[in-house]
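Researcher: Go.
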Amino acid sequence: MDDINFLKKLSFQRNYKSAISQKVSADDEDAVNRLFESDRGRIINSAAIRRLQQKTQVFPLEQNAAVRSRLTHSLEVQQVGRYISKTVLSDLKKKKLLEEYGLTERCDAFESLVEMSCLMHDIGNPPFGHFGEAAIQRWFSALLAPSYIFTEETPDPCRIKALQLTGNKKQDLFRRQLKQDLCSFEGNAQGLRMAHRLLKLNLTYAQVGSILKYTRGAYDLEPIPAEFDYLMKKPGYYWSEADFVSELTKKLDMERYCRFPLTYIMEAADDISYCIADLDDAAEKGIFTVEQLIDHLKAEWGEVKQGDLFEQTIMRAYNNISENHTRRIQQDQFFMYLRVNITGKLAYYSAQRFIQNLPEIYHGRFNSALLEDKSPEHRLLKVLKTVAFKHVFNHHEVEELELQGYRIISGLLDVYSPLLMMDRAEFSSLVEHNFHKHFFIETRLFHKLSNKHRLSYAEALEKVSATNESDKSILEFYYRARLIQDYISGMTDHYAYEEYRKFMVSN
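Model: Structure:
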């Protein structure tokens, strides 16, 4: 246990060094806590957090304020993460392990880092959630399909020559990596890109490490090692942030493919929160009654025995409903007790799993979620998720909204595709002069892109160190595609819907 030292792991340094952080001593607890408090301020006041109020949790474009947005969901995740953190620290204190693990002076930092990672965990999600992700992935996969781009015989009306194969093995590998990267849009990877590159929050290394949920680069073509298959099941970052992630892992003393320890708590808090919230929102929308929900849950759980976890959580919540109140109040009562009961059990269990597996978790080698085992707690979580999948996500209203969202994102990508069809010299001229006399449609589309995203594109090209023109063309196209992905994925559901309507209106 001697190698567990959170004083070293919870780095308060930043990528862009500030005069304040450079002068702070690791022994000055108050000063260190102020640096993490600065992270809180940067995150809470960021535009990405505000936009979460108009991004969907389950029901896109929902007008009922009682149904969760990404923001209200994230606030709930933040609270559960706080609960788990406090339980972990309290139990370690009882076992007199805080000092041994270097946490005596880092309890506030530990808790704050978890809370803010919970609040941030969805900032990279595009409009319409996972269907927005799927739309971006499939659109770019079709655009860069080998049969269309990579054959010499195929006419190239789109003039996307940057990703054509040349026979040079090194360049071919590079092209395949960047192609996979662009076709693997993922909300977690986009969240890290937003925090570091687009919003330029300049958070502490520990705070950024806390949101790096998956440890595989989107461009990585190598087979996934079995011992890290869970931690690498999705892309966690893009090629555009690979250098930063490499620096981050060194600063946080993380080995290749390993995860930052506090990320496990953020993940557990998210699992606990959304498995209850999705059912609550479905009841709010009238998809099922409380009684029908109980029947669905029982069908998945099987025989309910006295004193088992189902009886202690779900049935106890149901039995607490007062018959003297209206059905609406009964529903609210049920979900309040359900949330309290389930969170209490699963959060406590998550904290115990964190402590029991702390050596592996501290080093980021624990290849599982905290709530993924053969326990009754995992069984209960699985039941809640299964019922949501069968009776909420497969509901016709949800499916129609998801398909609508898919069409909107795909349609917007079609609208902005002319910017990807320009060759490098023409697009460079448009960027430099903010106008191109031969591309008036493209000029107007370019003007609609936000200054923040255009600046990120320009800064990326300034740092390109490629010496040959072929590699420069590859990278220019890559960053141009990132520009389009950044802009559209950063939209709220409502903004994307309104933009799509404007473009698709017929005369």
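Model: The radius of gyration is 24 Å.
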